[in-house]
Design brief:
Chain A is mainly alpha-helical. Chain A has 20 helices and no strands. Helices cover about 75% and strands about 0% of the residues of chain A. Chain A is globular, with a radius of gyration of 28 Å. Classes of the chains: A mainly alpha, B alpha/beta. At the A-B interface, α1, α5 and α20 of A face β1, β2, β4, β5 and α2 of B.
């Protein structure tokens, strides 16, 4: 379904990366930095007369921490220019006119970069071997750490490919990728650390996790893989979308892939989140957390469906939205996020990434809330901030959910006139109000258990003037599920958009000839007058249209 | 399944319009290219040549108008169109680290050409473009001329019917230009249709069967070169006469001859336009001889593509 996984591109990428002189220098410096770092770790611990196995553990910890840092340093640089450089050199045009699909280009770049970078990670094995000689390490932990390292390499490369796919400037692509790595990287690493500590029973700031029964801790371990999966798949689909030419109808594999991802997301919600919610001790806190994470998942599902609709189906849909939008300025607003390219692409992707960012923070906050409910103590030190983030996530997700989703849906359905704008904005406001109401309710319910900052307390006092109680809260949940269901159906419908016969690639006022025109008058030697034809463009076009009539496509 | 397979016109462009923001770059151009001919797309910088070519190559979506390649509409059947065209941009960066053979192999793979067909096509293309002795050379060390050859080879790798070449000879030295022209003639002999753009008219005038002249997004002329020449040829014929020495009586003498419309003298170069038949022009030279005005050479100054271009265009960009 993804062709030959971009085999020609993989080969080309590996050759053109590895054969450069600077590649060997980069690898040399990489090993030098790693070895130097390990020497510092050893020197800083050797004075404490630690048992060898403890020292070994610290060395391996340092080794993977350093490797992770280097992954964040090197891989964005490799991936950031993957497409922007091709664009700058105009070789991208040659790829577009070839038989390679956008999905093959993306996979080819990803696997090519990873294939080249694989040597970076493998070349450090001798250093790891020295650490292992100290003992005290389980092979499983090393395998898990290496798996995480590779997973992060894929994630960072995916970020780079996404940013590169929508950037025309190399500099912007590099800045964007490193910014993303700096902002989102620590979050994924934190999720991994939380999960790992929950499973290993390590003490310290994770002590509170011990209060969770062991059979429930594996939930925390799933957070990092889920985030990684979401990031990788989201970035790859995003990149495929941005690389697809407007008339592309190559989206079927992409749609199949993301349909599977959505099924996974729904299964995650149904079989992991929900059962866990039923087990936790504090109903109110748990409810708060489950609300947040449910919103995140439903929003995620809706966003992916939107992406499927946009990237997978023919982009006539969004162009159609543009056509509608061009009729009245406000409708342009509705369609604006759906059109790729330039600043729009940046805004759209920023919104999606921000939604993911807040969503993951919301997920973190749920973890915090659950643990707080069990222990009565703060887990992340500043759980209040996490709670605030969770609320922001809810509001933000609701807004994105309503605005982007409804704009897409309405433009797909072809609703015209002021009703489009009214419905989009109206439902967005309604959803935001309902979300605030739910947050308000949650705060009142949980105020005896969660420590609030002065700012939050003043917010609470302000919001308590407009109390909304239980039924509203249930109503909000229902609204979420209804909207989720609505967009799930909308997304499924969008899978069929390609088959809609009436939608063609047209722009406002685009008169479309279905068959070649009758032979146009061409100056021949005998043709008189021997003046140079200076055709009136419109007249010429119209004349051709009139002559051709309605014919069939070839 | 092309409806127009075997049809005389391989490319039909009708009412093509393109607008970037408020700027109208193409204002409804229409032209056709017959199968097997070399079509020159001429225009000053900024006239809209590259935009037109990118639309033909399915890289841009026009604001309006239609493009058919071999009967397939470029907007509704872009993939069919792409299989029939070979596109060469005005500048292409090559992939460093790859050899010439690997570069061509990559594009053969990108066009899903495998097995024996790949071997055969690669051999043919390398032979045609005379890259045989460079196949193990890394592409980044190739000269500009060789890179252009390589790019043309890449354009031919899937054996397209229509070649769309954007300024293929720009930046080439005179020898490379001549070699490139030979290559284009060879392609025409093989039955390929070539559409190439350039603002260097001498290189087009020698190889093109038809031309389209574009200025400010409008096609100011198009058709066969000889037809355009005939159309523009004036009723008078221009002559240039190199005199042995200049003199005051020269202009007076020549303007007195019936049929001489105008005359100018620049140092020892006499230029005049004569409206009579060719067999009457001897009267001019007889008159010069009678006045003992000695001349050493006579040259008829024909219209060429360059003069046509200068007449038709004002050198303004859209």
């Amino acid at each position: 379904m993804l062709g030959n996984l971009g085999a020609p591109i993989i080969r080309k990428e590996v050759f053109s990366l590895v054969r450069r002189n600077r590649w060997f220098w980069a690898q040399f410096i990489y090993l030098l930095v790693l070895a130097g770092g390990m020497a510092i770790v050893y020197a800083s611990n050797s004075g404490f007369r630690l048992p060898p196995e403890v020292l070994g553990g610290k060395l391996v910890g340092g080794f993977f921490a350093l490797q992770l840092g280097l992954v964040f340093l090197i891989f964005p640089g490799l991936a950031a220019t993957s497409f922007s450089l091709e664009r700058a050199e105009k070789s991208f045009d040659l790829l577009v006119v070839s038989d390679l699909s956008p999905a093959e280009l993306v996979w080819g770049k990803l696997l090519g970069i990873l294939g080249s970078a694989f040597y970076f990670l493998v070349s450090t094995l001798p250093i790891l071997a020295v650490c292992i000689f100290f003992g005290g390490l389980s092979p499983i932990s090393i395998i898990v750490d290496y798996a995480f390292l590779f997973a992060m390499a894929i994630v960072v490369t995916s970020w780079g490919i996404l940013i590169s796919s929508m950037s025309r400037s190399n500099l912007l692509a590099i800045i964007g990728t490193y910014a993303l790595a700096i902002i989102l990287g620590p979050m994924v690493v934190s999720l991994y650390a939380v999960g790992l500590n929950a499973m290993s029973g390590a003490r310290g700031i994770w002590e509170a996790l011990e209060s969770i029964p062991p059979d429930e801790r594996w939930f925390l371990l799933t957070a990092a893989p889920a985030a990684i999966l979401v990031f990788i798949s989201g970035c790859l689909i995003g990149a495929t979308f941005f690389l697809s030419s407007p008339e592309s109808n190559r989206g079927i594999p992409v749609r199949v892939y993301f349909t599977l991802l959505i099924l996974f997301a729904l299964a995650y919600e149904a079989f992991i989140i929900e059962p866990l919610n039923r087990k936790v001790m504090s109903p109110s806190v748990a409810q708060f957390g489950s609300e947040g994470i449910r919103t995140i998942w439903i929003t995620g599902v809706a966003l992916f469906l939107l992406l499927i609709g946009i990237a997978g189906a023919r982009v006539e849909t969004s162009l159609r939205a543009v056509r509608q939008a061009a009729l009245r300025p406000m409708r342009w607003w509705c369609a604006w996020p759906l059109v790729s390219g330039g600043i729009r692409g940046w805004v759209l992707s920023s919104v999606l990434l921000a939604a993911g960012f807040f969503g993951l923070l919301g997920a973190l906050s749920e973890s915090a809330a659950i643990v707080e409910a069990r222990t009565g103590s703060l887990v992340f030190g500043k759980a209040n901030a996490m709670v605030v983030f969770a609320w922001l996530a809810d509001i933000f997700a609701a807004w994105i959910f309503a605005y982007l989703g409804l704009a897409f849906l309405f433009s797909t359905l072809g609703l015209r006139g002021g009703i489009n704008w009214f419905l989009t904005v109206g439902v967005a406001i309604l959803t935001i109000l309902l979300s605030i109401a739910r947050i308000n309710t949650s705060m009142l319910l949980d105020s005896d258990q969660i420590l609030f900052s002065p700012i939050m307390q003043s917010l609470m006092r302000f919001e308590s003037r407009f109390p909304l109680d239980g039924p509203t809260r249930d109503g909000v949940t229902t609204v979420h599920w209804i909207l989720g269901g609505l967009f799930f159906i909308g997304g499924l419908v969008s899978l069929r958009v390609q088959g809609l016969p009436a939608i063609r690639l047209r722009r406002p006022g685009y008169e479309f000839l279905e068959s070649p025109p009758a032979p146009a008058p061409v100056l021949e030697a005998a043709s008189a007058p021997a003046t140079l034809e200076n055709p009136s463009p419109e007249a010429d076009g119209e004349a051709n249209r009139a002559e051709s009539g309605a014919g069939g496509t070839p | 399944m092309s409806a127009a397979n075997g049809a005389a016109k391989i490319l039909q462009v009708s009412g093509l319009r393109m607008q970037f923001g408020t700027k109208e770059v193409l204002k409804g151009i229409s032209f056709e290219v017959a199968r097997g001919e070399i079509f020159g797309f001429i225009g000053p910088n900024g006239a809209g040549k590259t935009t037109t070519i990118r639309i033909l190559a399915t890289l841009l979506i026009p604001t309006g108008g239609d493009v058919w390649v071999d009967g397939y509409h470029a907007l509704t059947h872009p993939e069919q169109v792409r299989r029939r065209i070979g596109y060469m941009p005005d500048y292409v960066g090559v992939y460093p680290g790859l050899t010439v053979a690997e570069y061509l192999e990559f594009f053969a793979g990108a066009y899903r050409i495998h097995g024996r067909r790949r071997k055969s096509l690669l051999a043919d293309v390398i032979d045609l473009t005379d890259l045989g002795n460079l196949i193990d050379t890394e592409v980044q060390v190739l000269s500009k001329g060789m890179r252009q050859r390589l790019c043309l080879a890449q354009t031919l790798i899937h054996d397209p019917d229509l070649l769309i070449l954007d300024e293929p000879a720009s930046g080439l030295d005179p020898r490379a230009r001549i070699e490139f022209r030979v290559l284009l003639r060879e392609l025409r002999r093989m039955g390929k249709t070539v559409l190439l753009s350039s603002h260097i008219l001498t290189e087009l005038s020698e190889i093109c069967d038809s031309v389209g002249i574009i200025e400010q997004g409008e096609l100011v002329a198009h058709g066969r070169v000889d037809a355009i020449l005939d159309g523009l040829r004036e009723s008078t014929v221009a002559y240039a006469v190199q005199l042995l020495r200049s003199g005051d009586a020269v202009l007076e003498t020549i303007l007195a001859v019936p049929g001489v419309e105008s005359a100018s003298l620049d140092d020892r170069m006499l230029r005049f336009r004569f409206s009579g038949n060719e067999d009457e022009v001897h009267r001019v030279f007889s008159a010069l001889c009678n006045r003992k005005i000695v001349f050493v050479s006579v040259r008829r100054e024909d219209e060429n593509l360059e003069s046509i271009f200068m007449k038709l265009t004002r050198g303004e960009v859209s």
